[in-house]
Every structure is written in structure tokens, then in C-alpha cells.
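Record 1 of the preview.
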Amino acid sequence: MDAFQKAMERFDAENARDPNLESDGGVRHPRELLYARRLTDWVLKLAPEASESLRLAARCQHICRWMIPRETYPMMRTGYLRWRSDLKEFHARKSAEILREAGYGEEMIEKVRDLNLKKSFPAEPESRVLEDALCLVFLEFQFAGLARKTEADKIINAVQKTWRKMTPAAHEHALALPLGTEEQRLIQRAFEGVKA
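->
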């Protein structure tokens, strides 16, 4: 087994330990395992010839995310930002350990780390692909649930921020997503606000 296969299997094994389950096609899956697979799928749709480092970064982007719950931080914007920052460092550290154990050298580990920490975003093309994929996973799989429990103005603001980070190619994919009527209406309102 080569280093890539070892690393991908280890990432999946770690994420399979997520106690939080999410349904997909009527089957319950560990949430972070499902997220990693969805993110990988979007990266490969956007960039079928994605580099090894980009494919690895997609698979470990949220590795073991449940281990640092949001509710362990103050429930205010500063608490949220601190949680996000700590998560990024945790994911980078955890993925580096696995990559090292799988046989990767420091150069590849650094490439994956830089992608996951968005060090060169938006200048570096692969960081754009990863960000597009993250935004598309949000819009396809998380947006509807969030929209149901969030005020319209807040969700429109979130979509506008997401939209501004995306490339024109990702916008086309987003507009083709099979969203419900209410979600399409919210996206249209957000889109109009971005163009204004």
C-alpha cells in the first residue's frame, strides 16, 4: 500500500469514529466521514486532475472536528473565531501526524498544511479549488438546515460572504444545485445583494 492510500484510509478511519451521525440516502454515517467524502467529491468535480496534496487536504480538512465542540467556547463572535482558529491548528497537527506515519516527507506535509490553513488563498490556484469545494459542500448539504433555523437576513449575509469567496466556475455549479424553493429564493436575494 502506498503512502497516499495509507493516509486516506487513516483519515477515513479517524473520521469514522465521529459519534455524530448524519443521514445520506437513508443511511446513517459518521458526520465527518461523510463530510470528507463530499469535499473530496467536489474537489474532483472541480479539478479532475487534482494534485496529491489537494486530494489529501480535502480528505483531512475537518479531521476529528467533533473533538473540539463549539459549546466549549464562549457563545459570541470572539468565541466563535477562537474556536475556528483552534480547529484549524488541531486539524493541521492531526493530519500531519497521520501523513508522517503514512510515509510522507515534510515537503508534502507542509503543502497539505498550507492548503488546510489557507495560507496562500486566494493567490494559489489549488487553494481556490479547495475553497470552492468547501463553499459548494456548504450550499449543497448544510445550507437548507441552517436556513430553517436562522433569520433570513443572517443567512443571506452568510451566503453573500460565501459567494464572494467563490470563483465564477463554482458560481455556475452553485446555481445548478437541486435546492428547495425557499433556499433558491434566499440564494437569489443574496446574489442580487452581491451584484448591487
